[in-house]
């Protein structure tokens, strides 16, 4: 780290797949486990910076996650994509405009904004709300897959990813940290953007192949291509027991877990 670089930390709010772990109605060993690292809420992280807290995605478990980690305020949100498990906790941002003194900025691609405006149309109505806080105050800020952008004084580089054969999503790089959940293909140009990261986060659903997510073996191979000193696997299903899987992984590659905090620099 140079004397001009800055540092912060990332908190894993959630590390689970779209249905979470335990899954409703499932009696498998992982879903019934007493090990807290096997309790996985839907995927999101926060990034603490000098300028405030950046949230990546708004999963349905967001309120519980923020309370659990004692995070009192979110200053800005980045969206990887618009799937329900990454978006449908958006209404939990409703309290923050009171403390920010204005709307919460949402950094997203145009198709994600379109989904937000459709799914949360009540937040964008021109009708005067019945009372303050009746609807979330939100301000969409357009980003694209090619250009870095500034959030709270921090430069964010988008990382284009494939999430199945017909769906494009974004990962994000901030300094020596990169977050690439919900993908089964990282194009060569995106691998180039990941060179030099020290902490790499990538989705790894299970051991069996999946049409839209990396399995563990594929994620390990991508981690080797990126070459980070530490890789954390996220978006984990109930097929993977935390302790067993961690013991089987190569050095420098581990399963993330809800509440994990890691330092980063930019």
From TrEMBL:
It comes from the Bacteria. Its EC number is 3.1.4.55. Residues 53-236 form the Metallo-beta-lactamase domain. InterPro entries: Metallo-B-lactamas, RibonucZ/Hydroxyglut_hydro. CDD domains: metallo-hydrolase-like_MBL-fold. SUPFAM superfamilies: Metallo-hydrolase/oxidoreductase. One of its GO terms (molecular function) is phosphoribosyl 1,2-cyclic phosphate phosphodiesterase activity. Pfam families: Lactamase_B_2 (PF12706). Keywords: Hydrolase. This is Phosphoribosyl 1,2-cyclic phosphodiesterase. It comes from Rubripirellula reticaptiva. The lineage of its organism: Bacteria, Pseudomonadati, Planctomycetota, Planctomycetia, Pirellulales.
């Amino acid at each position: 780290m140079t004397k001009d670089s800055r540092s912060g930390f990332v908190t894993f709010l959630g590390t689970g797949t779209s249905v979470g772990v335990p899954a409703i109605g499932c009696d498998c060993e992982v879903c019934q486990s007493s090990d807290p690292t096997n309790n996985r809420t839907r995927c999101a992280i926060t990034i603490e910076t000098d300028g405030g807290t950046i949230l990546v995605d708004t999963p349905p478990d967001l309120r519980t996650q923020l309370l659990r980690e004692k995070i009192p305020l979110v200053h800005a949100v980045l969206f990887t994509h618009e799937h329900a498990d990454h978006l449908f906790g958006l209404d939990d941002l409703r309290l923050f405009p009171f403390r920010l003194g204005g709307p919460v900025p949402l950094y997203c691609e145009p198709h994600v904004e379109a989904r937000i405006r459709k799914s949360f149309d009540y937040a964008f109505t021109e009708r005067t709300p019945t009372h303050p806080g009746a609807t979330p105050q939100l301000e969409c800020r357009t980003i694209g897959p090619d250009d870095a952008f500034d959030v709270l004084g921090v430069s964010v580089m988008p990382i284009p990813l494939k999430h199945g054969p017909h769906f494009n999503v974004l990962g994000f790089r901030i300094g020596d940290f990169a977050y690439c959940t919900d993908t089964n293909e990282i194009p060569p140009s995106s691998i180039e953007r990941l060179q030099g990261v020290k902490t790499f986060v990538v989705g790894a659903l299970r051991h069996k192949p999946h049409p839209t997510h990396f399995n563990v073996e594929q994620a390990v191979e991508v981690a080797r291509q990126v070459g980070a000193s530490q890789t954390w696997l996220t978006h984990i299903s109930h097929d993977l027991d935390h302790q067993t899987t961690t013991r089987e992984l190569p050095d420098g590659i581990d399963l993330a877990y809800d509440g994990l905090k890691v330092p980063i620099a930019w």
